[in-house]
Amino acid sequence: MPLKLSLKPGERFVVNGAVMQNGDRRGVLLLQNKASVLREKDIMQPTEVTTPARRIYFPVMMMYLDPSDVSSQYEEFVMRMTEFMSAIRNPEILKECVTCSKEVMSGEYYKALSRCRSIMTYEEECLGYVDQGVSADGEADRESA
Known about the structure:
Elements: E1 3-7, E2 12-15, E3 18-21, E4 27-31, E5 37-39, H1 52-65, H2 70-87, H3 91-105, H4 109-127
Antiparallel strand pairs: 1-4, 2-3, 2-5
Helix pairs in contact: 1-2, 1-4, 2-3, 3-4
């Protein structure tokens, strides 16, 4: 079953590591086979890796975008997830962390990224982080006026 992406004018996205950008009109892209695809709103830049949960998201994103270099990113993920889990006591979030780890171990990186977003939401709610870049819901954070 093809993946259908509806793109906003100028929206950027990554397909198998290649950064692409939609033209000046809304567009639709159909991917007929398996590919690693992330929309601009889900891509985290290294400068945005500023919280413990974001330190988990980033290596998972890198493994998803470049599965040929998983080993170094996997080590970073394990270290950051272990640190995060040792500081958390919420059983629901701990379960999310365990499930995310299982998904990463089985190579289901896109599913793990979705799980990471729920972990980021928990972190934002508990600690009140207001950061620019990728937010837990996948939308770009905005500064209040």
